[in-house]
Amino acid sequence: MKDGVRDGAGFMLRWVREGNGIPAIVVGSERFYRPYFPQALRDDFDIVFCDSRQWVPTPDGFDISTITNETFCDDIDAVREAVGFDRPIVIGQSQHG
Q1: Is pLDDT at 96 greater than 90 in this prediction?
Q2: Which of 12, 19, 56, 97 is within CB 3.0–4.6 Å of 92 for a Cys-Cys bond?
Q3: Which one, of 60, 18, 64, 70, lies nearest residue 41 by Cα?
Q4: Do 47 and 21 form a contact (C-beta atoms < 8 A)?
């Protein structure tokens, strides 16, 4: 297992990487979604579970009205780059999808 934190304008977005195989990023809450994905998937997928901004504390003074879909995409892309993925499968459900 590898892990890290991506600082997105003061939002500390944690990620955890598990498994081997096809690259995939699960967007949402690293702590919440990790247990929901069966361990067997890690045999075929190199999965990164990462936080999105709504799952971590908002920095003091940050204007949340400046957050857009592009902001979320930029955060995911920064995690993708940090872990060295080229073109991963991106997985999300509900608002994370």
Answers
A1: no
A2: 97
A3: 18
A4: no
Q: Taking 70 as the threshold, does the pLDDT of residue 38 lie above it? A: yes
Q: Does the pTM exceed 0.85?
A: yes
Please give the sequence-ordered ranges of beta strands (E in DSSP) within 1-97, or none if there are none. Answer: 2-8, 11-19, 22-28, 45-51, 89-91
Kindly state the percentage of the chain with pLDDT values over 90: 69
Beta bridge partners of 7: 12
Distances from the Cα of 89 to the Cαs of 40, 44, 58, 64, in angstroms? 17, 13, 28, 28
**What value, to the nearest 5°, has the Cα angle with vertex 82 and ends 70 and 32?**
70
Question: How far from the centroid of its chain's Cα atoms is residue 75's Cα?
Answer: 8
